[in-house]
Design brief:
Number of strands: 13
Order of helices and strands: HEHEHHEHEEHHEHEEEHEHEHEE
Number of helices: 11
Number of domains: 3
CATH class of the largest domain: Alpha Beta
Shape: elongated
Radius of gyration: 26 Å
CATH architecture of the largest domain: 3-Layer(aba) Sandwich
């Protein structure tokens, strides 16, 4: 397509709005620099969504001359995608699709450039096998969910994961290996940066068995300025909303006080107490934290997580007031990812009871002891 009909001001504005990158969905290639040599030169193509002539791709007898110099009708593209939409697959790239691509790209550029320069955040990722499934978390996917309140401090994530582990969470060796790796990675990659004051804010994206997420939370603790991201199924996102709608959290206390104490966290599913007494015996006191209708996608907003933090803190204080500091608290969790990490952050190693975290696996016929977290 000819660019002779495009004014210089619109060419400049298009470069600005696109950030100098290809606007084709999923490309984002910088068009001002050679990827290999890093030499600067212009390798961009300006394409018309509706061709500037009636016989061109997506052209129209009436609209083509009207939109020939309209900024909303222009896209900045790399050579590959310029040829794709104009020659190789015109029918597969109708006008509405290209308009949506352009809007998505320019919206992202605007959000990124609008962030205050002192709001950088270090992205931390952590994943471990859940049953037979191996979660996938990539920097490219999660980095967009740091915006618009922060922007990535580094061009890659600080990944605490154990790569390509063949072990599964039904095996004792899984928990030993994962715990050692998580503590080692944290001590190597994050703790020195905390001490040097290099990290002001963390954005945490994790997907792993709940006991490991609680452990991750204890390592980060509540001293660090942190936003914990939750994978939400519907609508699919990694960001909790700013909605102020409340969820009522209920605490059910046991009728008797026994030497053995357990915490039943029934948020994403309901755990019946007989599944706990099957492990600990009948002579145990079971505290329950729950909501009216537990289900796996109840956590939708930041307020839900903030309110839960308050309830957990009050609950831990109430339990430890009745028990010796060395008495372990047996935790049976059914809770979303972000709440598990937050639980770990709230737990205070110098003040709270030691934790024994259980995990449920059908291969092991129910709950079994997964990890222990000692106080100081």
């Amino acid at each position: 397509m000819s660019v002779t009909s495009i004014s210089n001001i619109n060419k400049y504005l298009l470069w600005v709005k696109s950030g100098g990158r290809c606007q084709y969905r999923g490309c984002n290639k910088p068009l001002y620099q050679d990827i290999i040599t890093k030499r600067n030169f212009n390798q961009a193509y300006i394409a018309h969504i509706v061709a500037d002539v009636a016989g061109g791709p997506r052209g129209d007898k009436k609209r083509s001359p009207l939109l020939a110099n309209d900024l909303s009708n222009l896209m900045l593209l790399c050579d590959t995608h310029h040829r794709l939409i104009d020659k190789e697959d015109v029918t597969g790239h109708p006008e509405p699709l290209l308009i949506k691509m352009k809007s998505e790209h320019e919206g992202r550029i605007e959000r990124v450039t609008a962030v205050s320069p002192d709001l950088q955040s270090h992205i931390v990722t952590y994943k471990a096998n859940v049953g037979i499934h191996t979660p996938f978390i990539s920097y490219e996917i999660v980095s967009e969910f740091v915006l618009p309140n922060h922007y990535p401090a580094l061009p890659s994530a600080i990944d605490l994961s154990l790569s390509n582990s063949p072990q599964r969470d039904k095996d004792d060796s899984f928990w030993i290996t994962e715990l050692e790796n998580l503590e080692s990675q944290f001590n190597e990659q994050l703790r020195p940066r905390f001490r040097k004051g290099e990290i002001k804010h963390l954005s945490v994206f994790a997907f792993a068995p709940i006991p490991l997420l609680i452990k991750l939370g204890t390592l980060i603790n509540d001293i660090q300025d942190t936003e914990i991201h939750q994978p939400v199924r519907n609508p699919k996102t990694w960001s909790l909303s700013d909605d102020d709608q409340q969820i009522i959290y209920s605490i059910i206390e046991p009728p008797q006080t026994f030497p053995i104490v357990a915490l039943n966290i029934s948020l994403s599913a309901t755990i019946k107490n007989d599944r706990i007494t099957r492990v600990l015996g009948n002579d145990c006191s079971i505290y329950t934290l729950t909501i009216a209708d537990p289900f796996n996608d109840f956590l939708k907003s930041k307020k839900h997580l903030q309110d839960l933090s308050i309830e957990i803190r009050k609950l831990l204080n109430g339990i430890k007031s009745k028990y010796d500091a060395k008495t372990p608290l047996n935790v049976f969790p059914a809770m979303p990812i972000a709440t598990a990490i937050e639980f770990g952050r709230i737990w205070m190693p110098k003040a709270d009871m030691p934790l024994i975290i259980y995990d449920e696996n059908s291969a092991n016929s129910g709950f079994f002891k997964a990890i222990g977290i000692n106080n100081i």
